[in-house]
Amino acid sequence: MNRVEALVRAWASHVAIPWVAGLSGGERVWFCVYDKADERRKRLHLPEFEGAAKRAGHGWEMFDLTDSFARWMATEEYRDRYFEDPELLDADKLVDFRDYLVRLVAPLLERASEGDVVALSGVGSLFAFVRVSELVHALESHIRGRLVVFFPGEYENGNYRFLDARDGWSYRAIPILPSEGAFSA
């Protein structure tokens, strides 16, 4: 069994556990952590993640963020300037991109019932533009069911490390790892 198949198995075990009610938005976040080298293999197995959620009696909504930066940039009035001088795309402007992402994903989270899963894939494409932790934090108040983020990176000693490149951060999301089975919550 490869790492992604092991992650599917861990996911199936985790999603089948009865869900605790009354959690805050931040406590309803799960990170399926996988090696960045397994991105294509993970995408191939996405229907299996969906199937496991549905067999456990949960709805499923997938949102792929892969081309979100390109779609956002296409709407920007000064995009040609940003391409000529990328330094103009500073932290303040990238907050606009994060807010754009929130406007895309929040309606899915708000439409979901308490028994549904909203899954985010393609978060690797956010690297250097938006921190995953900041995006998830901005989405917390919209989460009704569960938000699962397919997270290319590592989880170790309570810290997530995005694409093995950034310093890790501690976040309260529940990790789902290929080497482990079910977790509570």
Describe, in short, the structure shown:
The protein has helices at residues 3-15, 39-44, 46-55, 68-75, 79-84, 91-111, 132-139, and strands at 29-34, 59-64, 116-121, 146-156, 159-162, 169-170, 174-176. By secondary structure, it is an alpha/beta fold.
Written overview of the protein:
- There is one protein chain.
- With 185 residues, the protein is of the alpha/beta class.
- Residues 181-185 have low confidence and may be disordered.
- Helix 6 packs across helix 7.
- A hairpin with a 2-residue loop joins strand 4 and strand 5 (159-162).
- The protein is built from 7 helices and 7 strands; from the N terminus they run H-E-H-H-E-H-H-H-E-H-E-E-E-E.
- The longest helix has 21 residues, at 91-111.
- It has helices spanning 3-15, 39-44, 46-55, 68-75, 79-84, 91-111, 132-139, and strands spanning 29-34, 59-64, 116-121, 146-156, 159-162, 169-170, 174-176.
- It has one domain (3-17, 27-176).
- Strands 1, 2, 3, 4, 5, 6 and 7 form a 7-stranded mixed sheet that branches.
Strand content: 15-25%
Number of domains: 1
Regarding quaternary structure, what we see is single chain
Task: Give the helix/strand class.
Answer: alpha/beta
Distance between the termini: 26 Å
Helix and strand pattern: HEHHEHHHEHEEEE
Structural shape? globular
Helix-strand blueprint:
Layout: H1 3-15, E1 29-34, H2 39-44, H3 46-55, E2 59-64, H4 68-75, H5 79-84, H6 91-111, E3 116-121, H7 132-139, E4 146-156, E5 159-162, E6 169-170, E7 174-176
